[in-house]
């Protein structure tokens, strides 16, 4: 509930504080005194946009702060938690508008966005103005009313989860089917690419290896000539290097006993002789292995030509990338083979979920249709009570395709004059009729769901006497279980107040300002009497007012 409201420098309000009752709060005052200005200020902390035109003093900032009691409200606790805001029994919302037009918002002293304010406002306040009845003609609102009266909140949530599961799996099935269509379009192309790579049958690093082999074969004759020359010089020339080295070693060994360093050199020459012998053998082996093979060169050139062609075609650089592409194409081809099985499995899952969603939707529909006569009867009785005895509401529940809230279309139809021509509410109901119809519907819904603070801004225009009295009775009953704030011109409604606030104009210097104060019981009687008969109420008006307050 709204515990208090503090307003400073807004329109013609200099500064004021209001401490509200937890039940029925009535606000009255002369036309133009500023009653609706209070609602404008309240709208700021509920997320409405504003500019510097609302500033009473252009060089000072506007300040609006509301304190709400929110203990035991799970939806509000969930909102605070999801937005990383501190959870307390009291919730303070503040809005500041600077002289330069910059606006700042706070929730429990934490900066907040207008979007956050609006989301939170829907949980805190239900603001109902005379022409603010668009939701009454909204199909979602009409269905929500019917479900609330049928006690289907849990069933609706359970169905929504079932519908969402079915819808998600249906989307996945559509994705698989689209994937299959795309696969079918590209299947021949994938198959051609894969077959081309499979037929090429490249081994790992083959292109890189045969490039090296081609270099060897291309230079085979030069390599063999050089190897022959080296082998000849080592072993077969007129003075082979091996023979010379051996002779050098033998000559030095003659003098090993005379100088230790000579012996060491002789040993090193012996080691060199052994190493050169090994080299000669390796050169001979390499010489035998290196062969010029024109046919092999041709074969390699053909493989390289094929490989280069495929690399260029696919924008690749290595054999490994070609083999990776071949593997990916194989997987795509395999996916084409597997997708039919995946589609069949998904179709079975979707059918199961659809059957469950349809079962739950059918149960919802039955409950809605069962509740329809009761809703019509209760609303029509309340319409007669608030001065609309000829008005009738009819609830039409028609079958539709499965959607997020079931398989029904709920429409509220209205006949204001017993003509038996029921039309959609928005087409045939006047502003005053809409306001009273909304009040009747909300008074019923309030018994079924936990509505937030309800604010009614002059919705009683166009009624008086017994009808106004009955509107007051309905509001009083509403306030038994929740806070109600009502701006009214009707004494019959004002007489039902638990707390009666009076808005009046005053002066501060040369400026006219709006003020508000809570009336005592005697002040209430006088004010209501003035509402009945004028500035100087008659004795009868005073007695009538006293009866209204005391009853």
TrEMBL record:
<keyword id="KW-0234">DNA repair</keyword>
<dbReference type="InterPro" id="IPR004604">
    <property type="entry name" value="DNA_recomb/repair_RecN"/>
</dbReference>
<dbReference type="Pfam" id="PF02463">
    <property type="entry name" value="SMC_N"/>
</dbReference>
<protein>
    <recommendedName>
        <fullName>DNA repair protein RecN</fullName>
    </recommendedName>
</protein>
<comment type="function">
    <text>May be involved in recombinational repair of damaged DNA.</text>
</comment>
<dbReference type="GO" id="GO:0006310">
    <property type="term" value="P:DNA recombination"/>
</dbReference>
<dbReference type="GO" id="GO:0043590">
    <property type="term" value="C:bacterial nucleoid"/>
</dbReference>
<feature type="coiled-coil region">
    <location>
        <begin position="166"/>
        <end position="220"/>
    </location>
</feature>
<keyword id="KW-0175">Coiled coil</keyword>
<dbReference type="InterPro" id="IPR027417">
    <property type="entry name" value="P-loop_NTPase"/>
</dbReference>
<keyword id="KW-0067">ATP-binding</keyword>
<keyword id="KW-0547">Nucleotide-binding</keyword>
<dbReference type="GO" id="GO:0006281">
    <property type="term" value="P:DNA repair"/>
</dbReference>
<keyword id="KW-0227">DNA damage</keyword>
<dbReference type="GO" id="GO:0005524">
    <property type="term" value="F:ATP binding"/>
</dbReference>
<dbReference type="InterPro" id="IPR003395">
    <property type="entry name" value="RecF/RecN/SMC_N"/>
</dbReference>
<dbReference type="GO" id="GO:0009432">
    <property type="term" value="P:SOS response"/>
</dbReference>
<comment type="similarity">
    <text>Belongs to the RecN family.</text>
</comment>
<feature type="domain" description="RecF/RecN/SMC N-terminal">
    <location>
        <begin position="2"/>
        <end position="506"/>
    </location>
</feature>
